[in-house]
Amino acid sequence: MRKLRNLCLLIILVAFIILGGTKALLWYYTEKTAKDIQNALPPGAFNYTGITTSLNGSTSLDNINLLINGQNIKIEKIELASSNIFELLLLIAKNWGSKIPNELTLKIKGIKVDIDSLRTTERAAKLFNDSLSIPCGKINKMTAQDYNNMGYKYFIFDLNMGYKKISNTRIKLDADMNMRDALQVSLSFYGSTSIINPSAKKNIVPEFQINIKNNIIQEKIYDYCAKQENISLKEYVDKLPPYLNREDLDKDTVSSLELSISDNIMNALNEYQKKPQDLYFSTNPKGDISFNELKNMSEQAVIDLIRPSLKINGKNIPIEFEWTTAEALSKRTAQKNAKTNVPITQSSERILTTIDQLNEQAFNKKIEIHTTSGVVYKGAFKKVQGNLLHMTIYKSWGTSDLTLETNTIRLVYILSDF
Question: In whole angstroms, what is the distance from residue 19 CA to residue 370 CA?
Answer without folding.
Answer: 71
